Amino acid sequence: AAAWGRVWRRLRLPRACLHGAAGSLLFHMDSVIQVVEVLESQHLDGHLNLSVTELARGLGCCNSEFDRLLLGEAPTEPPDLPFLSQEQRSFFKHLLKHEVQASLVEQGVVLLPDGTTVAVSPLLAGIEAGLKGRREMPLPLEAVEPSLVTTEPSNQTRPGLPLTIDALYAVTITKALGMAFLLAQANESQVPMGPNGCWDSVYEPQNFTLLGHPSPLTDAFINGALDGVILGTHLVGQGMARVPLGPLLREYYSGGGLAGERQVRSNFRRQNFVQLTEAGQLEEQVLRSLQLLRALAQTEPLLSWAGDEELQATASWAVQKFTEAYLECPAIIPRCMWGARPYRGTPTQLKLPLSFVYIHHTSSPSQPCRTFPECAADMRAMQRFHQEDRRWDDIGYSFVVGSDGYMYQGRGWHWVGAHTRGYNSKGYGVSFIGDYMDTLPEAFALSLVRNNFLQCAVKGSKIQANYTVHGHRQMGHTACPGNRLFWEIQTWHGFK
Ligand SMILES: *[C@@H]1O[C@H](CO)[C@@H](O)[C@H](O)[C@H]1NC(C)=O
Ligand SMILES: *[C@@H]1O[C@H](CO)[C@@H](O)[C@H](O)[C@H]1NC(C)=O
Ligand SMILES: *[C@@H]1O[C@H](CO)[C@@H](O)[C@H](O)[C@H]1NC(C)=O
Ligand SMILES: *[C@@H]1O[C@H](CO)[C@@H](O)[C@H](O)[C@H]1NC(C)=O
Ligand SMILES: *[C@@H]1O[C@H](CO)[C@@H](O)[C@H](O)[C@H]1NC(C)=O
User: Fold this and answer.
1) What distance in angstroms lies between residue 138's CA and the mean position of ligand 2's atoms?
2) I want to staple 453 with a disulfide (CB 3.0 to 4.6 A). Which of 59, 257, 259, 449 is the partner?
3) Gap from CA of 147 to ligand 5 centroid (Å)
């Protein structure tokens, strides 16, 4: 850990100014909430007889045959919206269609205050399922016994009771997950999930460009789907058909959390989704979604020949990979999002898998960062210090842990860092932002490394299964990672 005397300013993002230079609305959740609030005030005043989600469906969101079966019919006449400005109208319509263009620009997504990005359509689908109180819906009989299936459905899928599908999961994540893996099974060059992307500007977000080969299940789509499940579950639980969405979205994305629960915010979507989702439930629901799709008239050609056993195998593969990558692994904010400057010189590649993980604290900044703008500013300040004062090529750490629910990419999984002199090519350096001589990081931040990061690194073959965790002080003359944090990590699996 670097102790340094330099004073840095915690740069804060200016209160989102919602219009870009060209006058168009910025692709930020604040702009979405602004439009939602206009629509809801019109709804309240009796000028609009549709809720925001019904309106969105009338305009083409979440309106496939599959969605209509589970959410009910959408308004057929696309409503006229005289009370929205021209730019608000085109912004709203643009957002309802999720797709990736050939240029790798992902459309239908917005930047959130927490530094992550969501696709709007699965989010709205989940909210609509919640508002309609749709969870368990009967699966049509022909879904399980399709005339085109040649293999006999096994008894397990025909237990004699009507099978049900969970509409909330189906319209958000499970259909998309099943289809993505079915496509990847049929085409070896098609990746099933990911990737993340970068905004052209965090201050004036307009274009979001993916960081690699596109899949239908981008990180932003998955974020939107998980948020849709979390918000939908909240709404079903409250039985609140008339709840205004503007305040709900504010609480969840930029406020104190749903119903005042600090942990029920977008920052903790992975943890919250895991809590809501029983083990095994997800796999069954992916299967049910694929069965229902197969039963629909204009279905995917890929599905028409697939028997229940094949669908079961696809569901099982999909849920295993999804769970590892998006539920067990921590969400890591990429360099482009915290405003990293380029690496100086030529980085050296690590030889994976590594055997060690070295735990650090930053010491200064001495205070934990609790919001994305604070954590991003800390990352920039540390990189500046390491590059300019220490004359290193880049920020020293492999990964950095915020107290906002996220980890931040330093040098990342593949490049040798500058964190633990003499051992930089042997292990990853993971640093908690703050000074932990006398206090501990938040329990959720500790858990992110202890339970998520280490497991993720093993499953991803980044570290050996028999890895060793050391505190920085075991490797050199330093107090890092602080007395209190050092005691704590001695209880961790793999500590020696
Ligand atoms: C909603 O308003 C439109 C005209 O603005 C009207 O055609 C439609 O019948 C109304 N729907 C309901 C359910 O009242
Ligand atoms: C299905 O169940 C029936 C009666 O419960 C049984 O007779 C039959 O052998 C079972 N079929 C399979 C393939 O297990
Ligand atoms: C397979 O996937 C790749 C990558 O997405 C795509 O370019 C190609 O057209 C697909 N091939 C077929 C036969 O669909
Ligand atoms: C965003 O992408 C569109 C095309 O998708 C392009 O016309 C526009 O210039 C881009 N804007 C910026 C700020 O790069
Ligand atoms: C850890 O596992 C690797 C490969 O399984 C093995 O080569 C290595 O000797 C093990 N290290 C220790 C310290 O047990």
Assistant:
1) 23
2) 449
3) 53
Whether 90 is in the pocket of ligand 3, judged by its Cβ within 6 Å, is no
Read off the CATH number of the domain in which 399 is found.
Answer: 3.40.80.10
Average pLDDT over residues 274-281: 90
Domain count, the chain: 2
Give the pLDDT confidence score for residue 6 in this predicted structure.
Answer: 33
pLDDT, one tens digit per residue, over 404-451 is 999 999 999 999 999 999 999 999 999 999 999 999 999 999 999 999
Inter-residue contact 19 to 204 (CB < 8 Å): no
- From 122, 101, 115, select the one nearest 28 (Cα to Cα): 115
Mapping DSSP to helix (H, G, I), strand (E, B) and coil, where does residue 217 land?
A: coil
Identify the domain boundary among 294, 310, 328.
328
Q: What pLDDT is attached to residue 149?
A: 41
CB distance 186 to ligand 3 below 6 Å: no
pLDDT at 363: 95
Which residue's alpha carbon is nearest to atom 12 within ligand 5? 466
Same domain, 50 and 136: yes
Query: Both 313 and 441 in a single domain?
Result: no
User: Measured in angstroms, how far is the CA atom of residue 240 from the centroid of ligand 1?
Assistant: 22
207, 208, 336, best to mutate for ligand 4 pocket (most atoms within 8 Å of CB):
207
Question: Is residue 160's pLDDT more than 70?
Answer: no
Share of the chain above pLDDT 90, in %: 76
Residue 281 to residues 158, 201, 276, 294, 330, Cα–Cα distance (Å): 17, 39, 10, 20, 22
Q: Is residue 495 part of a domain?
A: no
Phi/psi region, residue 77 (left: phi>0; alpha: psi -120 to 50; beta: rest), is: beta
Domain that holds residue 130: 2-328
Among the three residues 278, 295, 328, which one is the final residue of a domain in this structure?
328
State the average pLDDT over residues 47-60. Answer: 89
Q: How far from chain centre, in Å, is Cα 495?
A: 30
Nearest to 52 by CA among 113, 127, 117: 127
Mean pLDDT over the full length of the chain: 90
Give pLDDT, residue 154: 53
In-domain check, residue 448: yes
Nearest CA to ligand 5 atom 10: 466
198 and 297 co-located in one domain: yes
Q: Is the CB of 206 under 6 A from ligand 5?
A: no
What spacing in Å lies between the alpha carbon of 355 and ligand 5's midpoint?
8
pLDDT band at 7 (very low <50, low <70, confident <90, very high): very low
In a domain, residue 66? The reply is yes
State the residue for tokens 């499953």: 459
**Ligand 2 atom at minimal distance to the Cα of residue 152:** 13
Residue 147: closest CA among 295, 289, 300: 295
**Which residues sit opposite 210 in a β-bridge?**
197
